Task: structure prediction
Amino acid sequence: MPHPSAAVPTPLPADDFQTCLRRAQALPLPEVLALLSGRDYWHTQAAGGVRALRMTDGPHGIRRQLGDQTTSNLNNSVPATCYPTASALAASWNPLLLREVGEMLGREGREQGVDVLLGPGLNLKRSPLCGRNFEYFSEDPLLSGDLAAAWVSGIQSQGVGASLKHFAANNQEYRRMSIDAVVDERALRELYLSGFETAVREAQPWTVMAAYNGLNGRFCCESPWLLEGVLRREWGYDGLVVSDWGAVSDRAAAFRSGLNLDMPGVSALTAPALEVALQEGRVQEAELRRAAARVLQLVARADLAQAEEAEPFDPEAAHALARKAAVQGSVLLKNDPLDGAPLLPLRAGQRLAVIGAFAAQPRYQGAGSSQLVPRQLDIPLDALRGAFGAEWVSYAAGYPRLGDQSDPELLAEAVRLAAEADVVVAFVGLPEAFEVEGIDRQHLGLPASHNELIEQLLVSNPNLVVVLQGGAPVELPWAERVPAILNAYLGGQAGGSAAADLLSGAENPSGRLAESWAAALEHWPSSDQYPGGPRTVEYRESLLLGYRYFDRPDVQVPVPFPFGHGLSYTRFRYSDARPAADGRSVTLRVTNVGDRAGAEVVQLYLRRSQASSAVLRPGQALAAYARVDLAPGKAQDVTLHLPQRAFAHYDPFWGRWRTEAGEWQVRIGASSRDIRVEYRLEVAGETLRDEVPASYRQLSFPLRVRRPDFQALYGRPLPDNRDYRSGMYNANTPLDAMQEHPLAVGLFQLLVWHQRDLVGDTGASMNAPHNLRQLPLRAMTMNPGLTANPPLARFLAEIMNGHYGRALRELRLALRRSWHKRRG
Result:
């Protein structure tokens, strides 16, 4: 029996929602309002009897910011393990690996005092131009959802919450805070929401982040259909919904629609705005208390999880895992025989010329909010010298590390060294400024200096291996003439050693593309409607995303490196396919017929002929996959299970999933275009009426869908896409749409001046003028004080509209909010 004077431990709070709701209902209203926005850029409020939580960026590593917390500083963070970006992790096709990475991130997050890590990014790769594609997994929702669920489960098993983002249809950076994504509901349900549904149902992330963009006429943060109808009622989500940073346009509408936490925040600004909304009846007190209960629930979950002892974080083990992930996430695109044998793997005793500035100063991570300070950085050149001996490896930069133009002296030195070598290994790719959060790519080309280098090296020495560093597909005009190409993606801090492991043969390549690499930009099905504008972007390709378009039999398009493609140093044979009687699974034998251990990714696709179907059908769709590791000469039975909705489609009219009766093709192979086993399956279901618009029944190449046909698929009038004009500006109008007004020009110049310390920084190029010009008035900077003061943005809009009376009223309100801020 304890001594009477012994301290009695405080019981941990319950994290079930009803208990937290009762707590929220008992709080004074000021405490409730304080819980609904952040204290600063990275912390929630310590209010309502709970502590503040720390959130931080980190899909690929923990970016815990140091110093001032009232704004974002991409260059001042605690050193952390830098893992490969999502595009590389997805190329592993290995949910178990993603679970491991999540667990290690959770341990490191616990060590750094992080409560919620803002990731993973789960948006699909609609276009290769999206500046943030390196941060997303795939163009396929099945693969994306599986990997995200594994990542979330891993990190949350260690007591750190995940934030599934960006919900939903956040597939471009152009005008990302104002653009309205117009997507038909079948495409939404079967593609753009599907991966989120998998991750929510299987992993229950602590938070889901509502996206910047609009979706079918409503901002995602203000969409009750999305946040309450789909996320909570249909999927059973029981966590917190947080805004993307600065995404909230109308706070009353957001909290009324199911948002729970507005970030970043200044309570002294947000609370008065919600008080006014309460007085005007634009939001109900019960809605605000329910939102506050979700914040209390999140704190309780963090406290309960972190009360349990965690496995200590081991930096060396984390680096080894980062190296393993980089190996599995690299894709051998090509390895053609040259003089009777492939160039890779390289052999000891060969004189190697390593060419390219990226070999000595690698591109290894994304730029923008995922950028961090790595604990260490493995250099490819050093790793190759360690593998083969420094005396066997020469080096020349070949091109300037930054910029687009060639340097004749650097190029000449590279050509000279290449001519003296047995094999040339050239490192090229996308510099930081070419792909970055906030800015879409303008083309798919490499820097001109990189292409010129490859052309000159081919003349100097045909024994050429090209290593690509970058987060997304690029056009490779020389691909047919280069014998070997290794796509290393953005490999993180251990990417240099991983590349050496693969080139030397210490590791066998096993990565498979999780996105299609078509030959040219105009081949992508979204190219005619990307990035859209001025107000909307229409997803006219609908279900025909990536390989789903390329693999339609009526589309004859060359795809140099198709979805699922990846080579190995060994070979695999598929045989003895045995479908189950109910058609819901198939077992086949996979044999390693080569002389090296390796991993194969067996992929199962389902195809339904458009000619025999009454609804729109993609060329085929991934329905199952399995990664299998085999020693040389060994075989293993692999069973692929089809998901419950494998043969179903979503019917927007009836609001449910339906199955059309008829014949399907089951296609099993090593990529979407390397099919090894095929059989037919008769599926029972309904007989449907044909309602496929003409543009979708017989596809064109490149894809061109008439607006009336898309509207027929969309099922209702398309949202207004007229250009912005004076007299109709509002807080959501982008600055670049108002440049005819002198005040807008002045605001832009002021904004560039305000960000002057960041604009010129390579890693922080999301703050470049091109990006800043696209920001709407309501979010001219990510400073919490300004983003939390909507009346100021409305005042500026009304001044440019010439509505001076309205402007004066907004100015008074803005000054009142500023007074509250100073008092706070």
Remarks:
- The CA atoms of residues 326 and 495 lie 6 Å apart.
- The longest helix spans residues 285-307.
